Structures are given as structure tokens and as C-alpha cells.
Amino acid sequence: MKQYKKVSLNDIAEKLGVSKTLVSMVLNGKGDENGISKSTQEKVIQLAHELNYKPNQFARGLRLGKSNTIGLIVSDISNSFYARIARHVEDYCSQEQYNLIICNSDENPEKEIKILKTLLEKQVDGLIISSTIEDNEHLKMLNDEEIPFILIDRIYTSFPSNYVIVNNFLGAKEATQHLIENGHKKIACFTISPAHISTQVERFLGFKAALDESYITFNDFYYKVISRENIYQSIYNAIKEWQYNHIMPTAIFLANNQLTLFLIEICKEFKINIPKDLSIVSFDDIEAFRFNNPPITGVVQPIESIAYSAVSELIKIIKKTKSEKSFELAQIKLETNLVIRSSVAKYL
Hints:
Layout: H1 9-16, H2 20-27, H3 38-50, H4 57-64, E1 69-74, H5 80-95, E2 99-104, H6 109-121, E3 126-129, H7 137-144, E4 149-152, E5 163-166, H8 168-181, E6 187-192, H9 198-213, E7 223-226, H10 231-244, E8 251-254, H11 257-269, E9 279-283, H12 287-291, E10 297-300, H13 303-319, E11 331-334, E12 337-339
Parallel strand pairs: 1-2, 1-3, 3-4, 4-5, 5-11, 6-7, 6-8, 8-9, 9-10
Antiparallel strand pairs: 10-12
Helix pairs in contact: 1-2, 5-13, 8-9, 10-11
């Protein structure tokens, strides 16, 4: 197979008998300001077109102080929520002529710090981050270094920053109210570790607010923080404990889609019928829920809007001058939607 040599600035300069610097200035649109004649500029541009010259974007980025690259850090790419976010972020970056580097922290703070350092070494223009780190020192560092970034999904209430999130509190509250409206009072809640993550905190608070408004007593034994490292065993143990003590709830609110998928499998093992024996509602709605038997009621997050808003706001931040960076932060909270299917039965 014939190999084609990549055309360089030197190739164009040699053919025209001019300097590499002159060619570079013309192709970067700086011919007029450097006193290069119109005829010479036209020759350079025409030959570059004929030779199908493609600039080295990385080298060009170093010269211009930008790489046209954005870094995306997600906490768990195996979670379909983040996989779909990444897909849409990539689409919108491409539309705006930005490359995207996708990184997965695996909910590991040390790994996330290493990823941040690597992306900064690669001179990304900005970062979209779903962070797993408990403190906000890494964000302070980015601020101090004037690195444009925007948080998605998870935020730090103690640290003002740009973000795009959903209304986790209201989404969880509406999901729990749906269970209450169907007569359930013995309602359990599963969240997932790490417990400090803002999404899990807000969803638990929304769950509890729905109970409080309906004068239903909250019982600690119906609240479980499920270990991310062993979801299956943690849920299995909770169900076994409730059954052994004869305190099985009639309904469960699950704070993410992974918890729901594992619970469905465990219910089959315990021969618990959904929704006859146990009603469930999931925060997050994934395609598998529509095809489950029964289809699962879930809280839908506007994933495309999250991705679009994150990319568009980050690019605005990247393009701001230093004097503009003190302007109002971009803080976007999107609404969720409860899709009612067949996983909740009336409790009489």
C-alpha cells in the first residue's frame, strides 16, 4: 500500500523559495500585519491547498496557547448514565470543533488527581468533571491556575463553582410521593457509597421530605448506604435482615440505576414478586427498565441537556478574557421527570 508523506511547512517554503516563517504567518492569517504582499500570500495559500496541507493541531495549539481539547472526567463509565453523558458530550464537542479526552476515575480520589494532572499536562483548554473527591482542594487548585472547568452531576455546596446538575431533591421527593400515593408507608431507601456525594445526599433528603410531609415516621433500619464495592452482597444482606426480623418494607426508593438492577436480580432469588410483594421506584431511567418484567418506574434525567449545557457553558468560560472571569457563575439546575410504569402496586 502506497504511503503518503505528510506535507509540512518546510515543503511549501522550499517549493516557493521562501522561509518557513513566512509560510506560517500567511497560513495563520498574519500576512497583512507582517507586510507580506497579497500575491505572495495567494501563492502560499494556493500551494497549501494543492498539496492538501493539514496543520499539526498540537503544535499549533502550543503556539496559540490552546489545544482545542476538552477533558471529561466521569466517576464510573460502566454506569450507563455516565456512558450516555460521555457520548453526548463528545457529539457537542465535535460540533464546536473541539476534541474530547474521556477519563474514568472509578470513584477513586487518588486516580482522579492523577487524571487531572495528566489532562493539564496535555494542555486541555477546559474540564468537565463529575468528581468523587470529598474535599474541594483540587477545585481550588484549578481556580488558582485559572483552568476553566464545569462540574456535572455532583457539586460542592461549600465551594461556589460553575455546574450543570439536576434537581435531585425534587426528583427523589416526587418518586417517593408516588409510592405514598399508592398507599405505601413502610418505604425503604437505598443510596450508594461514597455517602458524601451530593447526588446521594440530596436524593435521600428528598426521600425523607416526602415522608415528613405525609407524617410518615422515618426508620433508620429502612435506610441503607449500599457499598459500591459489593452492591450485590450489600443489598442481599439488607433483604435477608428485613425478612429474618419480619420487617420487610412494602416499597423501596433506589437512588441510582445500578442499585435497581441488582435489586431486581436479588428479588428473583428471594422469590419476591415486583410489584405484588415489593414496589420499587428508581432514580435514573435506563433502557433496560422499559423491557423488564414489569417495566420499572423511574426518574428520568435530561442527559442530552446536561451534556449540551456543560459543553456550551464551558466553551463560553474558555473564551472569556481574564477580566470577565469574575462575572456571574454558570449554575444550571435542570428538572427531572417521573416516568410511571408498572413496578408500583397499590398497597391496601
